[in-house]
Amino acid sequence: MRRIVHLSDVHFGRTDPAIVIGVLNAVRRLEPHLVAISGDLTQRARSWQFREARAFLDALPCPQLVVPGNHDVPLYNVARRFLSPLGNYTRYITTNLRPVHADSQMVVVGLNTTRSFTVKDGTIRPADLRHACQALSRGGEDLVRIVVAHHPFEYPEDASMPWQKAAVIRALEALAGAGTDIFLTGHLHLSYTGQTAARYRIAGRTAVIVEAGTATSTRRRGETNSFNVLTVERSTIVVERWHWQQQTSAFAAGDAQTFAGSPAGWTARTPEPPPVDVEDAIAERRD
Prior knowledge:
The protein is globular. The strands form 2 sheets. It has a 7-stranded mixed beta sheet with strand order 3-2-1-10-11-12-13, covered by helices on one side. A 6-stranded mixed beta sheet has the order 4-5-6-7-9-8. The longest helix has 15 residues, at 163-177. The protein starts with a strand and ends with a helix. The chain has helices spanning 17-30, 47-59, 78-83, 87-92, 126-137, 163-177, 196-199, 278-284; strands spanning 2-7, 34-38, 64-67, 100-102, 106-111, 144-149, 182-185, 192-195, 208-211, 226-232, 236-245, 250-262, 265-268. The protein has 8 helices and 13 strands. It is an alpha/beta fold and 287 residues long. The chain has a single domain, classed as Purple Acid Phosphatase, chain A, domain 2, CATH 3.60.21.
């Protein structure tokens, strides 16, 4: 059994200090085998914000797997955005933009989906996709395989660049072919847990998708601050959402969903919530 804490969109530079302390206290008590952070460590990719994010990571349990988000790329400094988009990220957080965590029960692969030419959206470079598939393919059949990325693997139907949707589907099919069991993402500040077969309508192996709300940011998008706790075994995945409780100034466990494994992938044992309306969510998410 492995316990994974999934944090996302911490947005240092626009955080609630009491909630930051609450996250640290809760995660330490959980004693996870891995902390996965799916991007947007800062609000505007400034050095002081990365220093705060670095202090936060240093206060969390290890091991950790971290990937950048679109907010970790400078927005207003155009020169740095195109010449050194992740300069501060690699200076303060990690130089490893293709992180992999592997142990006797799971392999977890991080994908960098940030791009300089778009403010909100992201894509996967072919070389990064090949690296991820190779890393996922290593090891025995008993390993649980997990992908961590900032952007959900989906775009609205009226996306300004239609080729992005085709690229996302190709990436999903490649990662599913490599045996991916779980996708951990963020970006929308909206929590969701479901199955790829229902959400993306692609053929082949069914994986579990887990999208996190914002752990510490004041930009809550109508939800309370939250993070996910996954209990992972070869035959069972349990995803539990931990919510901030204002009255107690602490995080507490909330709803949970359970998925059962089979040769064809994962099936929900508990009813799935309605899918997040990604088109509306992306349209509303203004930087």
